[in-house]
Amino acid sequence: MVAFGSSGIICRDSGNDTKVLKSPLRHDLSKCSEDTIKSMREAESFSLACIDREKVIFGTLPGHKDILECLGITDSGLQFPYMQHGNLRDYIRKNHAQLDDRTKDTWVRNAVSAIQFIHHHSIIHGDISARNFLVADDLTIKLCDFAGSGIGNTPAVIAEEDRYRKSPDSPRSFQTDVFALGCLIFEIVVGSRPYEEINDEDWEVIAENYDRGIFPPTEGLKYGDIIYKCWTSQYMVANEILLDIESAELCVYWRHK
């Protein structure tokens, strides 16, 4: 097993270890109580709905260099390439001291490009996080996990982790994706999640800070202005972030001419 969560389980392909299969949760309930069986059946039903949603999205979304390639859709689930470096959060934590600015710049561009692309195709990811970008062999990153994402008029059925969530009660939208993207850029630049010093169980403190417009300091950070604009709803679409990145890079170029 590679990973599992509420939306499904990911296992290496027994016939080809360069691939993984993502499939719905299934539990052995033969010795469980009625209450446990009911709870697990509900979890299985949710997982199946999430996997079905991901099948629909990958069945319609064109390929893109910054999005994990779907190798096949079967009755059992979805096939993807095995990414030996794992997810971006774990990679940053293990290698933060060795990461250079060029690598971080590439990751920021990969992430913004991926979100801009899915938004162009009317997809709201709903759970943008460093957990949901995988690190490729060339050290670029690929957006993954569309289980439960929104598409067209069908809303997302999942939500971001607490530190990436604009508001617990707000519906998922392009703007909540952009807010989470700001949190992702912050994590790439700083090497830790927003409000890392606050314990996970105190998520309500983080939510209250966000509601009051209180954010981690971004002054002096590379991409600090962009992060702050993501957090304060100054971007309507992700493409505006790309334009700001390109403008900043052009200014740096001319300063060094």
Automatic annotation (TrEMBL):
Function: Component of the EKC/KEOPS complex that is required for the formation of a threonylcarbamoyl group on adenosine at position 37 (t(6)A37) in tRNAs that read codons beginning with adenine. The complex is probably involved in the transfer of the threonylcarbamoyl moiety of threonylcarbamoyl-AMP (TC-AMP) to the N6 group of A37. BUD32 has ATPase activity in the context of the EKC/KEOPS complex and likely plays a supporting role to the catalytic subunit KAE1. The EKC/KEOPS complex also promotes both telomere uncapping and telomere elongation.
GO cellular component terms listed in the entry, alphabetical order: chromosome, telomeric region
EC nos: 2.7.11.1
SUPFAM superfamilies in UniProt: Protein kinase-like (PK-like)
Keyword list, A-Z: Chromosome, Telomere
Chief location: nucleus
Subunit structure: Component of the EKC/KEOPS complex composed of at least BUD32, CGI121, GON7, KAE1 and PCC1; the whole complex dimerizes.
GO terms assigned for molecular function: ATP binding; protein serine/threonine kinase activity
Name used for this protein in its record: EKC/KEOPS complex subunit BUD32
Top EC class for this record: transferase
Highest taxon of the lineage: Eukaryota
Catalytic activity: L-seryl-[protein] + ATP = O-phospho-L-seryl-[protein] + ADP + H(+); L-threonyl-[protein] + ATP = O-phospho-L-threonyl-[protein] + ADP + H(+)
Keyword Acyltransferase tagged: no
Domain named Protein kinase: residues: 1-257
Pfam short name (any one): PK_Tyr_Ser-Thr
Protein localization: Chromosome, Telomere
Membrane spanning stretches: none
Source organism per UniProt: Aspergillus carbonarius (strain ITEM 5010)
